[in-house]
Automatic annotation (TrEMBL):
<dbReference type="InterPro" id="IPR058712">
    <property type="entry name" value="SRA_ScoMcrA"/>
</dbReference>
<dbReference type="Pfam" id="PF01844">
    <property type="entry name" value="HNH"/>
</dbReference>
<dbReference type="InterPro" id="IPR003615">
    <property type="entry name" value="HNH_nuc"/>
</dbReference>
<dbReference type="GO" id="GO:0008270">
    <property type="term" value="F:zinc ion binding"/>
</dbReference>
<dbReference type="Pfam" id="PF26348">
    <property type="entry name" value="SRA_ScoMcrA"/>
</dbReference>
<protein>
    <submittedName>
        <fullName>5-methylcytosine-specific restriction protein A</fullName>
    </submittedName>
</protein>
<feature type="domain" description="HNH nuclease">
    <location>
        <begin position="192"/>
        <end position="251"/>
    </location>
</feature>
<dbReference type="GO" id="GO:0003676">
    <property type="term" value="F:nucleic acid binding"/>
</dbReference>
<dbReference type="GO" id="GO:0004519">
    <property type="term" value="F:endonuclease activity"/>
</dbReference>
<dbReference type="InterPro" id="IPR002711">
    <property type="entry name" value="HNH"/>
</dbReference>
Length: 280
């Protein structure tokens, strides 16, 4: 759709895709895309957009008062569940009216930070954590190879008892909140969540109930972990939104005609399981 590094006249982007011509966060209903524009604007308020630990930190919108999850901020937070893709552009100071395409991103979370509004008053700002789409797919989308690789390298979780890993999956164990925001921690957490789903499944597909089709080289039942929702708001980080599936059901979740229905059923199964576990 857009080419990385290419400069676009912002006006033409809106002529073609619609969306608000002035906002930093511009949603095109017709194309189901959200265009994000970053500039130096945050600096004076005590925060600025930019790369940190492999994420692009993007400040939400709202000029005075606490930022809230409305309009553009809500659009970013919910982009995945609403089926919108995020595209980031930066302004090009030397060429007026032009923006340069940085790439497609996925919102994987956000932080609330103290900052200042336009009037210099203290307020809460939403800082979105955006991950480059390609990397997101690599880490979170359960490519079969990816999953397999993970199963082979998760020795440190293998001996861990279910209760302990459930605690970890829910983030109840001591995880340094500072560390949690780094990419390495994010990946580690994704692994914990996957591992948790595999343990919860006890060797059976959590959707159809059939036994794992085979054992891996290190003698673990082979199942694939699927993310039922890919939400920015807690999504990949939430044990209630992952399900361990047999390869057939996994393909069904992705490619079947009734994928939407399957998704709802999966969500229900997992929620019920988790409720049972809460009460056990
Ligand atoms: Zn199955």
């Amino acid at each position: 759709m857009f080419e990385k590094g290419k400069r676009y006249l912002r006006k033409e982007l809106h002529d073609k895709y619609g969306g608000n011509r002035q906002s930093g966060i511009s949603k095109s209903r017709k194309y189901k895309i959200i265009m994000l524009f970053t500039s130096e604007r945050g600096k004076e308020f005590g925060y600025e957009d930019g790369w940190k630990e492999g994420f692009f930190l993007y400040c939400g919108e709202g000029q005075s008062g606490d930022m809230e999850f409305v309009r553009g901020n809500k659009a970013i937070r919910d982009h995945q569940i609403e089926g919108y893709s995020l595209h980031l552009f930066k302004s090009v100071p030397e060429e007026k009216g032009f923006v340069e395409y940085i790439g497609q991103f996925v919102c994987v979370g956000y932080e609330i930070k103290e900052g200042y509004d336009r009037e210099g008053k203290k307020r809460k700002a939403i800082i979105f954590k955006l991950m480059p789409y390609e990397e997101y797919i690599e880490f979170v989308d359960q490519g079969i190879q990816n999953n397999h690789e993970f199963s082979e390298t998760s020795e440190d979780f293998k001996e861990m008892d279910f209760k302990k890993i459930r605690e970890l999956a829910y983030g109840k164990a001591n995880i340094d909140p500072e560390k949690r925001s780094t990419k390495r921690e994010y990946i580690k957490r994704s692994k914990i969540i996957r591992e948790y789903a595999l343990k919860r499944a006890e060797g059976h597909c959590e959707y159809c109930g059939s036994e794992a089709p085979f054992y891996t080289k290190n003698l673990r039942p082979y199942l694939e972990v699927h993310h039922i929702y890919r939400l920015s708001d807690g999504g990949p980080d939430d044990p209630r939104w992952v399900i361990a599936l047999c390869p057939n059901c996994h393909r069904r979740a992705h490619f079947s005609k009734d994928a939407e229905k399957v998704k709802e059923e999966m969500a229900k199964i997992v929620l019920e399981k988790e409720l049972d576990l809460d009460n056990s």
